[in-house]
Amino acid sequence: MKIDKYSFGVGDRFAKEGKAQLKAIEAINKLGVPVVPVWNKSFREHSIVKTSQQSVRKEADEAVKSLGWKKNYYVDADHIGLKTVDEFLEYSDFFTIDVAHFIGTPADEKARREFVERHSKYIGDLKIPGIDEVFKVDKAYLEAAADKYLKAIQEVEKIYIHILVRKGKENFIAEVSMDETDQAQSPLELFFILAELKFQKVEVQTIAPKFSGLFAKGIDYYDNLENFSKEFEQDVAVTQYAIKELGLPESLKLSVHSGSDKFSIYPAMGKAIKKFDAGIHVKTAGTTWLEEVIGLAKAGGEGLEIARKIYTRSLERYDELTGPYETVLNIDKSKLPAPETVNGWDARQFANALIHDPDCPDYNMHFRQLIHVGYKIAVELGDEFKNALENCRQVIEDQVYTNIFERHLKRLFLQ
Ligand SMILES: [Zn+2]
């Protein structure tokens, strides 16, 4: 199985928006950009929402059937490990193998020596086509790379084989993700990670490194854009070089786990993939949930009541909800509006505070991030929330569609 050149992560907390998401993918295809959808959900998300991967498969199949989608589509077991992969096997054909927490575990003496030996042909000056800078590789560099990444790559191999023997090579796509860690991987490190994956016979097709700068949940990128652009372009160059140099699958491409809504980096990403004629996968589905809350607020009445409730309860349980996402949030608590203020907002004020339009004076990125991690509150509201989603269906679907099509796909592929 080979992943298409352009793919886009969709999927949503409550598995309700498959059709609206697929409509957005369809719309970009009509404009001549062949993007395919990948419905993704992680073990963490399933445990909070109390769902299983079967619901994601169902959502994807139903959307595809209802819209008559003829191209490929995938269901991604997002951020799985050896302990969590089994319950995803039957319903998934894309596996995001997450080994980030193995990074930095020193390699065994012998394994380190062997790693250095097998990559020693790169010692000296390494010139990668498309990158001006010449990389200096020496023995110490390779030893350090082994100590940082070898254990993680060996873990990838274990998980990959586990999937391979159960699914068969032709029935799944393997992504390797290293993004949920503190330190970014450099483009040169990315090359040696790919080289070692090749040695371990892992047929990786998409790889998600950690890029420099903060990828905060649900809001834009506020770090140094110039650094990001340079690093991203070098990473693309490395993947293209790795295909030829290492004999990795032609379909190999970067996967960007954006934490959603990194609009300001899209132009740089679009430019780099065009320059190298490379593919891309973007995983950004998380904000579909925010579009649901915006839709509820816009619908007014009962919908607005629930949207307010989600915010005020999230505020009461701030520490609990933000805790698991501590490293990927950028909230200034003093900028969070008081419950009384929010309860006085009308539909437009609530929606404007939440809609991701940094130019709108009512937009509040702190408010937005808190609601982004507050989906547990919606889970607890149970039928009250689910019924509201049904009652406000049209306005929600318009939000979901417009968000993915206008803000994401067009900016990435057509800017
Ligand atoms: Zn990720």
- Low-confidence spans: none
Distance between the termini: 30 Å
Q: What's the number of structural domains?
A: 2
Percent of residues in helices comes to: 40-55%
Largest sheet: 8 strands, parallel, barrel
Q: What is the number of strand segments?
A: 10
Bound molecules: zinc ion
CATH-derived topology of the largest domain: TIM Barrel
**Which structural category fits the helices and strands?**
alpha/beta
User: What is the approximate shape?
Assistant: globular
Strand neighbour order, sheet with most strands:
1-2-3-4-7-8-9-10
Share of β-strand residues: 5-15%
Identify the CATH architecture of the largest domain: Alpha-Beta Barrel
CATH secondary-structure class of the largest domain:
Alpha Beta
**CATH superfamily caption of the largest domain:** Aldolase class I
- Order of helical and strand elements: EHEHHEEHEEHEHEHEHEHHHHHHHHH
- The radius of gyration over CA amounts to 22 Å
On the 0 to 100 scale, the average pLDDT is 96
Task: Explain this structure.
The chain is of the alpha/beta class and about 425 residues long. It has 2 domains: about 5-105 and about 145-285, Aldolase class I (TIM Barrel, Alpha-Beta Barrel), CATH 3.20.20; about 290-405, no CATH class. The protein is built from 17 helices and 10 strands. Strands 1-2-3-4-7-8-9-10 form an 8-stranded parallel β-barrel, surrounded by 6 helices. A two-stranded antiparallel ribbon has the order 5-6. Helix 8 (about 265-275) packs across helix 17 and helix 9 (about 290-300) runs antiparallel to helix 13 (about 345-355). The longest helix is centred in the middle third of the chain and has 29 residues, at about 140-165. The relative contact order is 0.13. The mean pLDDT is about 95. The site of zinc ion (ZN) has 6 residues, from loops.
